[in-house]
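We emphasize that the prediction below concerns an isolated chain of 499 residues; any contacts that depend on oligomerization or on bound cofactors are therefore not represented. The input was used exactly as deposited, without trimming of termini.
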Amino acid sequence: MILYLHRGDRMKELTEQEKVRRDKLEEIRKYTNPYPEKFERTNTILEARSLSDGTSDVSICGRIVFLRKMGKLSFVRIRDLESDIQIQMKADTTNESDYEFFKKLVDVGDFIGATGEIITTQTGEKTLLAKSLKFLGKALRPLPEKFHGLSDTEIKYRERYTDLISNEDSRKVFLGRSKFYSFLHKYLDGAGFLEVETPIIQTAVSGATAKPFFTHHNALDLDCNLRIAPECYLKECIAGGFDRVYEVAKCFRNEGMDPQHLQEFTQVEWYVAYWNYEDNIKFFTKFIKEALKSVVGTEVITYQGKTVDFSKDEWNRIDYCNELEKVLGFNALTITDADLLKDKIVEANLFTYNDLEDYKSVGQIIDYVYKKKIRENIVEPTVIYNYPAVLKPLARRNDEDQTRTDVFQVVACGTELCNAYSELVNPLQQRASFEDQLKAKEQGDDETMDLDEDYLTSMEQGMPPISGLGFGIDRLMMLMFDEPSVRDVVLFPLMKDKK
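Result of the prediction step, given as a token string:
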């Protein structure tokens, strides 16, 4: 029995194929280095496919995904992330020793390089007629038998490298995600934004209402938390003189996992001096349309069987507070006691006490009702605006009604695509909002913010009018590529250890 050490200190018996490949590896060493230093390619596979027939001295490389070995004529298909191409080897054209080496020792999954001439076969297949071959890397494990993709979801997430090799849909998603990053930077830079970086390790839970991860800084003997949002630091940049600023931020929230949530996620936040939230609505609407055209080629997409049209000049609008009052049958904004609000909701036969048991503060209860009775039913892109102040401690109060804030979110297919508002820049009002958060924490709400004195100090230094917006890249990618789970658009989602 041959055993080898696998990740996590698990011992695994080699399969028969794995034993054969290790034997071949030793044979390859007699002829060449099975893991050479480099290969000089002239073209990527995608570029090679566009070359005219007769183009010679073309050198390409990639992983073998199919091969057919015959006597004097053999075929192999190699692939990289973007494309694949057929390579034809002939006994009277390909270097004799290279051809014999290939037939004897090369397997599906190995990496090779080939140099030759571009031709088109009688079946219309763009092909490289190889004159020489170079071995570039031995795969000691065979590829999945079902080469159209992995059927085991856990293996798909745990071994993303295998998924990318075998699943064209996954390659499309992650190529698209990289393309989106390129679009994002180009679009925002072109609109006058400056990119910055802010701390991930912080000393105050601030920027969003969420449960944080905690850690300890040994050198400073300081209890810290991981960033749940970059908001406060970015607004401090505005106070310091930045006019338009953004960050692509890794954020961490120690909450439950479901198809739309992971504890580690990537979001973009931008802030603009002298804008209000209506300016951000216009900007985000155009941004999303251009992003869709750039990444997937259309403003009308299909998500989980539903057609979603982003092409309209103006998206639908819903007044959050008015819609909430319609659903509840009373004005929840006048209620400050969480138990009283629960009583009234149960009396209205909307939910049971058991449904509401986990929600400790007025803000949590209102948010739960909104998500279950309003957001879930929205399919077309819709601007939800005019939020209760109790939900948004960092947002600007409405001038006509201080129980409401100048906030909007864009929702499509029941999914929140962005969260944005006119920012609260009054330091006295901000301090009062932070103090309200502390009261909610005392009631048992563990998703509230701390009182962030550093941020308050920056506000006291003076802030202009500001509007900011944040959106999760993971969730947007789900929508763009019609994926049911956020794990399908994150390269390496955290997985529970195997037993």
